[in-house]
Amino acid sequence: MGDTIRFELLGPLRALCAGAELPLGPPKQRAVLAVLLHLDGRSMAYGSLVDALWGAEPPVHARNLVQKYVSGLRRALGEAGPELVWTGSGYRLTGARIDDLCERRELLRSAITAREAGDLRRAGHLAGEAEALWRGEYAEGLPGPYLEAERRRWAEKRMLVLEARLEGGIALGRYEECVHELVRLVAAHPLRERPVALLMLALYRNGRSSDALLAYEEARRRIAEAMGADPGPALRDLHARMLRQDPALLGGGAEMVGRAPAA
């Protein structure tokens, strides 16, 4: 039961059966399924589910709506799908998992193992495969405070993995490739300092020390304008080392600018 349906949340929620996508109903109904998928077979109390969907201001007929959504999901998933039951105090979904998320975790575990064994090329390849599973934002478009918090959490975890993959690319000498990707990343996240540090290092090692220093100045100006503060100590230290042409910056891995753990 449940093994015939594949569930995906690394983007808009999808339920696939025999290669065909199942119609899961309106956004709130889809949100109920997404929330219950996160519990890995544990039950969720009715009140907690209402909070997950609407927060502190549920509609007057919340109970009727939840029952309507659950009935709609049971019809959509069919008899061959996972079991969605009322436990007496809440709802429980069994026989289902978030398949693309499980695959991502397995790929990243293998990437970490490869990195720890010194095989940065394979680690980067596996991390790239994990990144390719994403189809958009986590649980994209689904409403409710529970899934919004999950979306923010997974955006950060995805960023940490991307930074770690680019760190590995720099360590392998793929400077031009990493520069192009890091320029886009810095533009998308102008106040995040880790991509700036990696961009500076990739430029510096590629013989573009002036561009590396310019990247720092642009970041310093953005942070000052937005926050009224200076860059953090790691970025300031990297800048100072580049100014004095620290020879250690030209060799070894990218961990000298602060390692970002895989997530």
How is this fold's topology laid out?
Blueprint: E1 5-8, E2 14-17, E3 20-21, H1 27-37, E4 43-45, H2 46-54, H3 62-77, E5 83-86, E6 90-94, H4 99-116, H5 120-132, H6 145-171, H7 175-188, H8 193-205, H9 209-227, H10 233-243
What can you see in these coordinates?
The chain is built from 10 helices and 6 strands. The protein has 263 residues and is mainly alpha-helical. The chain has a 3-stranded antiparallel beta sheet. A 3-stranded antiparallel beta sheet has the order 4-6-5. β5 (83-86) and β6 form a beta hairpin. α7 runs antiparallel to α8 (193-205). The longest helix is centred in the middle third of the chain and has 27 residues, at 145-171. Mean pLDDT is 92; it is low at 258-262.
Notable features of this structure?
mainly alpha, 57% helix, three-stranded antiparallel beta sheet, 8% strand
Biggest beta sheet attributes: 3 strands, antiparallel
Which shape, going by the Cα principal axes?
A: elongated
Cα separation of the termini: 30 Å
What is the number of strand segments? Answer: 6
Q: Structural class of the helix and strand makeup?
A: mainly alpha
Please state the oligomeric state of the protein chains shown.
single chain
Question: What is the structure about, briefly put?
Answer:
This protein has helices at 27-37, 46-54, 62-77, 99-116, 120-132, 145-171, 175-188, 193-205, 209-227, 233-243; strands at residues 5-8, 14-17, 20-21, 43-45, 83-86, 90-94. It is mainly α.
